[in-house]
Amino acid sequence: MTFDAIGIAGTGLTVHRKWLDALSDNIANINTATPTEGAAFQERYVAVQNSPDSPGVYVAGIELGDPEGRMVYEPDHPLADEEGYVRYPDIDLGDQMSQLILAQRGYEANAAVVDRAKTTYEAALQIGRS
C-alpha cells in the first residue's frame, strides 16, 4: 500500500513538473513577436491520461495552441509588415499565472504524499526491528 502511494504520487510529480515546464515556456514567450507571414508562438498544453497498466497518470503529449496568435499594430517594430503589423501569441498572462499556482500546489501536494509515505514506511521498518 505504501509503495502504491509513492508510485502514484511520483506519477503526479512528473505530470505537474511537465505542466510547470509548459507554463514557463508560455510565460517566457508571451511577448515573442513574429512576422505576419509566420506562425505565432503556440501555447503549450499538457495532455494527461490515466495509466492503463498501473495506478497513476502519465503525460500523453504536449498539445499546441492557435498558431494564428493576435495581430498588433507596431509600425516601428523591425518585424512589422508593410501595413505595420506583427504577430504575437494569444496567451493570457493572468490565466498562465493562475495555472502556475495550481501546478505548483499540485506538485507540492504530491511531494508531501511521497514524504508522508516514506515516513510511514520508515516507522513500519522501525516497528519490525523492535
Explain the overall architecture.
49% of the residues lie in helices and 18% in strands. The longest helix has 37 residues, at 93-129. The protein has one domain (2-129). The protein contains two helices and four strands. Helix 1 (2-28) packs antiparallel against helix 2 (93-129). Strand 1 (44-50) and strand 2 (57-64) form a beta hairpin. With 130 residues, it is α+β, with helices and mostly antiparallel strands. The model has no long low-confidence stretch (mean pLDDT 93). The chain has a two-stranded antiparallel ribbon.
Summarize the structure.
The chain is of the alpha+beta class and 130 residues long. Helices cover 49% and strands 18% of the residues.
Low-confidence stretches: none
Q: How many helical elements?
A: 2
Please tell me what the overall shape is: elongated
Distance between the termini: 22 Å
Strands of the widest sheet, in order across it, are 1-2
Radius of gyration: 21 Å
Mean pLDDT: 93
Number of strands: 4
Q: Which secondary-structure class do the elements indicate?
A: alpha+beta
Q: Report the biggest beta sheet as strand number plus sense, adding barrel if it closes.
A: 2 strands, antiparallel
Q: Estimate the strand proportion.
A: 15-25%
How many domains make up the coordinates?
Answer: 1
- Tell me the series of helices and strands, N- to C-terminal: HEEEEH
The percent range for helix content is: 40-55%
